Protein: Membrane-anchored protein
Organism: Saccharospirillum salsuginis
Amino acid sequence: MRKVWVVASALVVLVLVNLSIAMKEYHLAMGEVVYLELAPVDPRSLMQGDYMALRFALQNDIRNARQNTSATVNGTAIVRLDENRVAQFVRLDDADAPLAENEIRLQYRIRNHWVKIATNAFFFREGTADRYEAARYGRFRVNDDGAPLLVSLHDESLNNLGEMDRGL
């Protein structure tokens, strides 16, 4: 009987892990493309090992807008997409206000009083750091709930510099 429970538990875990992977793959394939401008980062922490430390200009906009609120929880920002799909901060989300044309919701999290959007690091293969020095934008896939997933980094002309190394 004990073996049955072990096997059943292992199968449930495998099904849940595979379901989670399938949902992320769907998100990456079908999510709305959004570019977020990178904010300056301390050059000493720009490249550390096989990843690049990231900050996004939108984080500053959200932090400034949150100064007028007492909220200390995660939230959603409204961003407007220009003709190149580059996001510009509009306002913090008010569930009652409808979205205008070219506006989408973008989730953010609060970690140790800092605004975090998706990730603060971009992982790449060893020896390829030079390729990413021209990075000015992060390309995200955003689902209907506003959850962003970082896909790749791009230069100031939105040329793809390379995709996130998901094999690390």
Observations:
- The CA atoms of residues 79 and 89 lie 5 Å apart.
- The first strand starts at residue 32 and ends at 37.
- Residues 1-30 form one domain.
- The chain has two domains: 1-30, 32-163.
